[in-house]
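== Protein entry: sequence and backbone fold ==
=== Local backbone shapes as whole numbers ===
==== Amino acids and backbone structure tokens ====
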Amino acid sequence: MALLQPDKACEPIVVVRGLTKHFLVGRGFFRKERAWLHAVDDVSFEIARGEVLGLVGESGCGKTTTGRMLVKLTDPTAGCILIDNEDVAAIGGQGMREFRQTVQMIFQDPYESLDPRMTVFDIISEPLNVNHIGTLVNREERVAYMLSRVGITPPDMFFFRFPHELSGGQRQRVAIARALVVNPKFIVADEPTSMLDVSIRTGVMKLLAELQEDFGMSYLYITHDLAVARYLCDRIAVMYLGKIVEMAGAEEVIKNPLHPYTQALISAVPLPDPAIRRDVPNIRGGVSKPIDPPPICRFHPRCPAARSICSDRDYPDLAEVSPGHLVACHILVAR
């Protein structure tokens, strides 16, 4: 399988090979056979140091499950994850503390990810306490610095506030500060702006971009918003029903989408000028069920360009159809 490496001279911080997660679904009383939900199915990609990879797709395509496996909140069914040259599956015991200092996650909902019984200081300093980093004075200085860095000032005025005393944007900034306080090398950001108002969303997006540049971190940025992905990400990987169907540079994906599903996603983005008309692919039907799908192209029942080859052969691998542009499609690869 061809995999895009943005800078071959730069060793990737994240290497994912054949990542798979299947969930056993409920069985009826008279059913003896097992059924499996294929949340993530044979996904492979790399993330370079300092790079932001956007993972986009509609709800239920496997984006969040992929992110949770990378931070070891969910165990994969199969596949390999290497972060900073360390096999994530082999990490345990004392190694988990070191892993949590290398990898952090920013969750989607700031109203659920912050403990309502803890103060802002307790929330942000908790990773320092758990990992036995610094003295109390050091932790106070570090929390104050991170609050200032994420735009919550003056920090000492917020130390002893509770989450219910903060706005949505302030809560998410506290969640970002908590993730960054241990200086991680890699962050999974799971739609961190989707629960915020549009006016607040812009400020948080700008903050994430500045922090990535200042700290040199790598992100897996999970989103369903292509505009956000275009603004923040160096590359974009498009998922459909647990599979990556297209991957390339962010501008390349937006301006030259090749896979019919990617074209459909982009055509759904509203244009600011109602007089401008955009060609909309003739996508048929609804999303197929991810329960025990056949080993063929999962988009072909809805694809306007589908041919007999799509249902006769196994699922296509990601292949490079132009420099740095990977697509999983029998028809595009055969051209």
The chain has twelve helices and twelve strands. The two ends are 18 Å apart (CA to CA). Confidence is low (pLDDT under 50) at residues 1-9.
